[in-house]
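Sat 14:20. Reprocessing the chain from the morning session after the first attempt stalled halfway. Input below, unchanged.
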Amino acid sequence: MPDIAIKRPEDVGLSSARLARVDAWREAWVKSGRLAGAMTLVMRRGQVAHLGCSGHADLERGVPMTPESILRIYSMTKPLTSVAIMMLYEEGRFQLDDPITRFLPCFKDMRVFTSGSRGSYETVPAEREITFRDLLTHTAGLTYGMMHANMVDAMYRDNGVDFQTSPGSLAEVVETAASLPLLAQPGREWNYSIATDVLGHLVAVISGQDFASFLRDRVIAPLGMIDTGFHVPAEKLARFAANYRKGEDGRLALIDDPRDSRFNAPRAIASGGGGLVSTVGDYTRFCRFLLNKGALDGARLLGRKTVELMMSNHLRGDMAAMGQPRFSESTYEGVGFGLGFSVMLDPARAQIVGTPGECAWGGAASTAFWVDPQEDMAVILLTQLMPSSTYPLRRELRVLTYQAIVD
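Finished this time. Tokens:
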């Protein structure tokens, strides 16, 4: 990975003394034993003004966390998949309000769960078909089996609708999901879901190229994200971090050893919703691309107007107005959703410092990023602790980074 040049914070309107609070915060989390290691990066006006690493990427082997460490970014894959499908949108292959049955007839005649149990349940016909915008905004009526919140989640688990572990193909898992009832009427509710994995399959169907190859050739490679992919090659394995959870005794418990991880070989499914590994340098390049409105180092992947559309709220109000109070990688109050990530609408309602128009998302292993076009700023948090709801890392880091702005 190329070296990341660090500029003087004061040159980009940030305070060195105030950014030092980020280092102290990160070190405290690691020294407490609650995180094995962590990394933070702050970029403003195109310059990286802060990069800090603490602790270990692999606690058991004593491998330190460094900017070269490769980590599971899980749902931070979703924005890249959203870029891929929007590239096809720019080619005129579909419109946002087109039904996805143009390309995936398995989603015809969907039904919506109303009541009952696994063995006996009631449904009603879907009032309309699922559109591309529904998938991009998580309003398609799909869900995640991992939610453990309702009967449709349970049906996903019973039928193997899991894009991380299924031995089947991407097409097979999508078709299985289409055979099950929807959680809600399309367009009616915001529910975090497998929608972005379905978008990955649509990329493959529309382009005629398998999704992993399309993402590599059309997005990852042009952006120079040299360590980002759906598995860790053998020659990079020494840089791959371990993944942890909070154990019963409060101590870290290893859940995925980097030496025998399922990420060590090509996967049966390239999960557009959560399958990538990456580095802080690579994801910084993706953030630059978003702040540059679709271009990076001479490579233009999307037009400015398309990126602005993606960064606009597409919900009727915030997620609280349309969503159910269950797991997501964002708060609900004061936060909307664009085409691939959350969009800050009202920091006061969200009860957190921020800027209207700022876009963000996170991953299941407590990773996070946000880009703030108004402040020309991006922040990245990388660590490996599941689930992301274990500690309020993201909210604390938001305060610590925004308070460092002094211009």
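The domain at 84-208 is CATH 3.40.710.10 (Beta-lactamase).
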